[in-house]
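Suppose you are handed only these lines of text.
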Amino acid sequence: MNNVVNKAYKLLRKSEQVTDEQKTDQSKRSFIGGLVGASGLAVAPGVMLYQIASAKPADQAVTNKVRWGMLVNVNQCTEDCDACVTACNDEHGLWPEEGSSTDSQWIRKLTVKDPSTQNTKSFPVMCQHCEHPPCVDVCPTGASFKREDGIVLVNMHTCIGCRYCMMACPYKARSFVHEVLEDQLPSTPRGKGCVDSCNMCVHKVDAGDNTTACAQACEKDGHQAIVFGDLNDPQSEISKRLKDFGGTQIRADLGLNTGVRYQGL
Amino acid sequence: MDTLRYSSIAARSPKFWMLLIGLALIAVVGVLSAHHMEVEGHVITGMNNQIVWGLPHVFAIFLIVAASGALNVASIASVFGRAEYKPLARLSALLAVALLAGGLAVLVLDLGRPDRLIVAMTQYNFKSIFAWNIILYTGFFAIVGVYIWSMMDHSMQKYSKKAGLFVFIWRLILTTGTGSIFGFLVARSVYDTAMLAPMFIIMSFAFGLAFYVLVLLASYTWTQRPLGDFVLNKLRNLLGVFIASILYFVAVYHVTNLYATEHHAVEKFLLVDGGIYTTLFWVGQVLIGGLIPLALIYMPQTKNCRKTLMAACAMVIVGGFAQVYIIVVGGQAFPLELFPGMEVSSAFFDGEVSQYCPSIWEILLGIAGIAISLLLVTVGVAVLEFLPDSLSDKIVEAKK
Ligand code: SF4
Ligand code: SF4
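From them, the structure of the protein bound to iron/sulfur cluster can be written out as follows.
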């Protein structure tokens, strides 16, 4: 059943990209044209054979053999750095205005101070890609869903904008799109009146990049505080690290078994 | 003329038309502001990514809760067999349907994508209490419709009792479902209690009855039909019991919360230093919605006074509104606790009490919900036989 949903969603994503393309201006058109040229074939205007270049063929269903996750090493994250936040905004075309309470923000830096010891820690928080996501349970239309590989997404075609998922998420991970969006990126479909949140750079994952924008940026800045990988593969770096050093879940008491873990919390 | 007869309000006076047009105008303005919200996006409202449900949801939930309670009078007649309530049953059912319609209209018009209503009606995630509520609400219209029919059509009257029982059960489930919307939000401290669903049921009793009494008084006064004290005093006592029950439930809610250390912060927020929410609680909910109307109802001096009864009902509605506001908005304003016991801050308002200031658009939309409800009642009593010609003591007591 989930497979069917996943496939449908992928098709929808594709069709959305196609409609996007029809709407956007020439410069974007040529950008997508380049993308498609590499991986798809326009049969007739608007009709397109399309395949994302990826490690696995796009018609192959996402499997539950993998479970994508991230490990954040809090000790390696510094308070003054927000490279992951900037990278996420650039990757997905979010660019929230500073101090705005209505713009989408998928990842944020949290500063947590223990009042008894004055010890302060700083680290990023994004959608935790819960194994038992409350946002999926409450969504009336099933627009909020979890892929077989553990990535939690919102289907932009069936989200009615009720915001129940935002009420349900314990991590404040979701944003509602409060206004008309301009300059959207074709790889990250979003829309006014719908809810969105960290999609674990699903376009990169499906393309076989094996990383996310935030992890990449953190690495580039030399902190290497974020490790992306397959939690189901005992040989992956993330699994090895978790095995050696352990990893905490935020609000583990809720029993959601999050895909994002923290080391050194 | 001692027999009970129903008739539509035939006298379509200028006053009637003015009321109708006035309500319709308010409804249209509300729909237009919802449209404006849809075109511009919710950025023009006071809602944001911290307070994601705002005033429209307060109105909607209030009306939906009241809808179920408005049916009380009918239930008392058909389920509990109290014949003196029977003449009041038709209006009770009509008001229930009307309030639900008004509430749902607001809820739907506030969606980010109201144009996708069809998606909500055709694709269900059965794990979601919201999806179940859509079924419960739709079913409510159908069942109450049949119930009204069974009361109005002589040939159907034999089913009236059964329909009444069914409606009674259905609406208890419906209110439980509405209360459970919050019960599922485990991570939010204000909703972390099993008390919400039963509390919603008792809230519905009081809000619905208050609406009912106001509509009854207004329609009988304006159409100059006789309305005796017997009926009103019955309803008055009933209202008193419901108000007292709410106060009791609220007290239990807070006292049980105070037992649990992890809830002390949120209790302090609600009861002591939550600013607007604390004020709304003590002044709005407890004083205006509870203690004063209780006094108005039970003071011997006001025994047969209709004005004080009206005032008590209006206060119950205002207090109830404050209560729903505290639950919906206050529940979100209190920061989510990602790290209990720690001081948390971020560029995304973590660890802060969220601010909310409703915009004119939300207010207009919310008020339109009430207008839509009253419009439906007005049209209903004008075209169908909902109101008895007379509710004089003689007629009602003869039914006993
Ligand atoms: S963190 Fe929030 S949005 Fe992400 S899966 Fe969990 S509940 Fe859903
Ligand atoms: S806002 Fe969209 S994704 Fe969230 S619960 Fe509502 S329909 Fe589902």
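What can we learn from it? The domain at 6-398 of chain B is CATH 1.20.1630.10 (Formate dehydrogenase/DMSO reductase fold). Chain B has one domain: 6-398.
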